[in-house]
Amino acid sequence: HVQLVESGGGLVQTGGSLRLSCKASGRASNREVMGWFRQAPGKERESVAAITWSFGFTNYVDSVKGRFTISRDRAKNTVYLQMNSLRPEDTAIYYCAADSAPAFVNPTMNPNAYDYWGQGTQVTVSS
To answer: What is the 3-state secondary structure (H, E, C) of 43-62?
Structure first.
């Protein structure tokens, strides 16, 4: 079993930055890939970014490329999402998730592939 705890959300103005953290505990073999997802009110959950735990390969949704960076600190069992140049449309609850299926190069962005989820952290970007 894997437990995920997100932190770092908050209220920020347009153009500002936030860094989300996701602390993972439990069996390392159950978190081969880590992902960040978000869900805005009235909208479906969408993928934001993903990273392979072993080699650090990454994927991003087009809308955040060049603004967001996903990274991991293996010693701290923590995944980060650095969010820069934030926009009002980035407002959502952000969730961290873990996928137990091994991925060597291309981490999946499909939320249905993920086995474990955190409780979410709210990010609000004011205009």
So the answer is: CCCEEEEEEECCCCCEEECH
Q: Which residue has the higher pLDDT, 45 or 105?
A: 45
Write the pLDDT tens digit of every residue in 5-20.
Answer: 999 999 999 999 999 9
Residues 6+ apart with CB under 8 A from 35: 47, 48, 49, 50, 51, 96, 97, 98, 99, 107, 108, 109, 111, 114
